[in-house]
Amino acid sequence: MSTDETPRRAVSAALYDEIKARIADGTYAPGMALPSTRALAGERGLSRTTVSLVYEQLAADGFIETRAGAASRVAPGAVPGNRTSAHGSEHDRGSRIVRHSGRLSTIGARMPSLAYPDAPLPASGEIDFIYGPLAGRDFPTLTWLKALRTAERQRPARLSYEDPRGNLDLRKALQTHLSHARGLSCSVEQILIVNGSQQGLDLCARLLVSPGDTVAVENPGYRMAHNVFEAYGAKLAGVDVDALGMRTELLAAIPQAQLAYVTPTHQFPLGAFLPIGRRHALLDWAAKHGTWIIEDDYDSEYRYSVRPEATLQSLDTRECVIHVGTFSKTLSPQLRLGYMVLPPRLVETFSIAKRLTDWHANTGIQRALAALLEDGSYDRHVRRIRRLQHARQHALLEALATHLGKRVEVQGAASGLHLVVWFSGLERQREQMLVEAARRGGVLVYPINIFFHPAVEPEASDRPAGLVMGYALLEKPQIDEGVRRLAAALRRIDSGSP
Ligand SMILES: Cc1ncc(COP(=O)(O)O)c(C=O)c1O
Q: Helix H segments across 271-376?
């Protein structure tokens, strides 16, 4: 490159950018004649060759049209915007944007009202009683890595898409597992592997519910389920929950529900096991109205005192129950692995929809899980983690008794990874105040009110303030210290200086 060529190039580039920017901001409109090369060269003190070369480049890039003997004009389809232009700042570009008339779908437009608040991350030293995440240290890392490596070694020569229902080995292993762990009898064909139970709920909402249909839900209940039904236009009918779970006698007031979503093994979040009489009442009501039932069996591995009783699915003689389970509570929510046991008449519809959604779940991970189930290491892991979680729950119950005593009433200790703690003498309107005072004292706790559907929390309800306290991330000393801090926060509220 000669020494005087560099400045000439810089001059050409600057002129090129300038003209392009003027086209973009409309100063040079499509069809408008540009100055002649002679005039522009004279005006800028440049050689005519430099200007001609810039025009040629603009023409080659489609911004202008040149014709021998005629003026160069801005091309009719010249694209506005020069994203790399030295002239166009972000601000200029923003002010040039005129949104086109594209709209969101009806479902898309509902999304802002269904946003789920992200839980705050604990700052260092804060103790977090969150429900949902599991401790990384509880994950069976070595066993999982071994299973993954084996699965990878068995990678077939032909990498094709798999059956949308899921890997056959996993479905077979799951069939055996569900039979001995849950007394659930089904064929391999009825099992559909999904990316977490959330995908199962989404498929149910899309395939079983039309806009305007009623979906009966427990209130309080699992908001991630409620929200998915609402997303697709369902009307929620909240059914109150008492110490025994969903109050099925109230179902008669909901004449035409298309779907009911229940957590009968461990009502979320209050923790009841739905007794057999209510199970039959629910099934009879569903049979009468042609209502589908989703049985969300999300944490049945954690029944501490007794074996988990029979599922709704096994009592169902009318093929109306869709049983949904997950590995998010025993292995990790990050695996996104769950399953559905479908009534036979729904299998084809759900398989086609699953294929249209994402073809199928990740094959390597499904094969690794199949190996864990087949060689007994999954059962061993569940026994181990159940002991750990039970010990944590015990520590939490002890700490609550020690630091809060009669101020609290605890619900849902028979199973699961969380407890519901009611604060007698503290009105529900002060729940948020308790959460904030606790945070200032270094402990993160979560109000129960977020699990009531706002539109259906009984207005008359005179419940006291309540918290959903998860313990899966914590060990005994932190649990004790966390509850001590919570008790101190409550004392500050009582004394009027939270
Ligand atoms: C009631 C309930 N169902 C299901 C799940 C699990 O969802 P997923 O399998 O999508 O992780 C949870 C997780 O917190 C839950 O609380």
A: 276-289, 312-315, 347-358, 363-374
Whether the CB of 296 sits within 6 Å of ligand 1: yes
| Residue ranges, CATH 3.40.640.10, the chain | 140-377
- For 122-140, write each residue's pLDDT tens digit: 999 999 999 999 999 999 9
State yes or no: cis peptide before 220, omega within 30 of 0. yes
300 C-beta closer than 6 A to ligand 1: no
Residue 241, beta-bridge partner list: 246
> What's the 339 CA to ligand 1 centre distance in angstroms?
12
The domain defined by 5-96 folds into Arc Repressor Mutant, subunit A (1.10.10)
**Distance between CA atoms of 17 and 11, rounded to whole angstroms?**
10
Residue 298 C-alpha to ligand 1 middle, in angstroms? Answer: 6
Beta bridge partners of 261: 217, 294
140-377: CATH topology: Aspartate Aminotransferase; domain 2 (3.40.640)
What is the tens place of the pLDDT at every residue in 184-239?
999 999 999 999 999 999 999 999 999 999 999 999 999 999 999 999 999 999 99
Is residue 59 predicted with pLDDT exceeding 60? yes
pTM, full prediction: 0.83
| CATH number for the domain formed by residue range(s) 124-132+381-494 | 3.90.1150.10
333 lines ligand 1 (CB under 6 A): yes
